[in-house]
Design goal:
By secondary structure, the chain is mainly beta. The protein contains 4 helices and 28 strands. The strands form 8 sheets. Strands 1-28-27-26 form a 4-stranded antiparallel β-sheet, with no helix packed on it. Strands 2-3-4-5 form a 4-stranded antiparallel β-sheet, with no helix packed on it. The chain has a 4-stranded antiparallel β-sheet with strand order 6-7-8-9, with no helix packed on it. This is Sugar lactone lactonase YvrE. It holds the Pfam family MRJP.
Length: 349
Amino acid sequence: MKLKLIFFATIFFIANRLSAQAINQAKLETVAAMDVRPGDVAVSTGGRVFATIHPLGSQKTQLVEIVNGKALPYPNAGYQKNNKKASNATFDSMLGLIFDKHDKLWVIDMGLELGETRLWAFDISKNKVVEKIELSADVAPKGTFAQDVAIDEERGWAYLADITNPGIIALNLKTKKATRFSGHPSLQAENKDMVIDGSVVYFGGKPARVGIDPITLSADKETLFFGAMNGNIWYKVPAKLFREGKDNQTIGNAITKAGNKPFSDGALTDAAGNHYFTNLQEHAITKLDTNGKLSHVIQDNEKLLWPDNAYLAADGWLYISTNQLNTTTAFTGKPDSGKAPFYIYKLKL
């Protein structure tokens, strides 16, 4: 009997080790090694790679294209802040970016200095700005931190997640009018500490409690998904309620749990309905499949140092930006202890 128990225990141990090795054998390839922190990354259908530069990392450049591993100001140097005072004609604090199905690049500018939230759109075939939408102060007042965006190009809507006053901003891209949904418990951080490498992560001098952060849309654009950075629940709500201008109570009553998630700064939803999260505490990319099961796609304690966002390209490569954000002064209250280079990786799914 004792030998039998030892045999089964050994088999169980080997199986676990093989499973862990299989996760870690997924190969991360370097797309760019950068001397400043990338924010989010997005990839066109033709494979062109774009990234924002995180506002906590640089005030010189805000938006770049990665060409042969180098970050080049996009669409040109003239739009960048270049360490100068923010202006209406130039970028301020870029972060979330996404391509729509027409290969138009949309980038959210939080306007942390200017005090105006703006949504920029680019025609990458001409490398030019084609839209700049300014959100009204009643919907996005100064101090708004709208860091993530989802686009419904078919119906002409954008959905932005604001973590300052946790809420969802729904923007009609045709009329340029926007509404805000706030105050619901699903938008708030859960009262749980974020622990990375054995240490509690602080933000603003106290244990981090960051509300709604990642926001995505289903493939048919009919379901909006969202969740708090400091939270283990992934929520969903019909997007048509925002388009139809329903009141906050109606929207709130329609919010349901889509599944579980790790503490995450970014997320994506694929065409099959799977969700991928940047797992901050476990240095991983974690998948929530259509059966409700969570599993790591990859886990790497040395490379995935604060994976900020993940983006699934048309060719099946998963792009991941990493920026060691928890080492910045905003999180620690101490001098920045992050160490360049900061990486953008890709991984074949």
